Amino acid sequence: MTEGCHPALSVVRLSYVSQTLPAVVAPSLPGVAAPTTATRAAALSAHGMTLGYGGAPVVHDAALRLLPGEVTVLIGPNGSGKSTLLRSLARLHRPTAGTVSLPDADDALALHPKEFARRVTLLSQSRPTPNGVSVRDVVGYGRHPYRGRLRSSDPDGVRAVAWAMDVTGVRTMADRGVDELSGGELQRVWLATCLAQDTGVLLLDEPTTYLDLRYQVEILDLVRDLADHHEVAVGVVLHDLNQAAAVADHVVLLQHGAVRACGLAADVLTAPALTETYGIRIDVSRDPHTGAVRTEPVGKHSRRSAVGA
pTM of the prediction? Predict the structure, then answer.
């Protein structure tokens, strides 16, 4: 049983093949069983989370765990509470009940802001685009939790900024103004800013929204690479169910502010659960070549191409 979600589900994991870096497989020690999801230490845990706006609850008694080296995707209809829950993990929405904990802090909500920001970072949906500021300087904003009054108080800053720009592929545009960039380029710069923060937990709220297909794929490749090759614990809100199936180690399905199901993609992304949750018929199949879960919403005109053929 998968710890930390209600109800818990479990099945064989689907793999996501990164297009950016080669796969790395850690060898197992003889006679030593690999740790399961339920026994591995979480990079961030939330329990009994109840959240609301103006006294009206929008999330009820939600729980989840983010594990190092794994991607957890939150899905659900508009208004289901997924972004509110994610923001609460970053302390941007204080719960009326519940706890958020880190390996070295049972009550993460009580940490000093800079201490918390050295452990958890969030790429939010909307951010202002500063004028006349270079990519390098914007990425450097991610070092704020480590700096005092003088930049020299951050000896790892140059290394962290360079690494973040390399990983996200923005080093070649380091001296360009961020106001000159395309939407996809700018999204990678903001992701680099989060990475420069050098945290073990990365939260992303709909990072592919408004991006064209190429940049959507590139951002999700980066997310998968960060988990696979840098042991980052990633929590991400996505609307596209096929993207969720491709990138996730675990999927959390929310409905009316409650966790309806959580587990591996093949467990959670079922036709009955999705059809009921989204209020529209959604067919689910497996790709015959890769075995990946595929979802298809069925509307009144969904079969036009098949009929026309």
Answer: 0.84
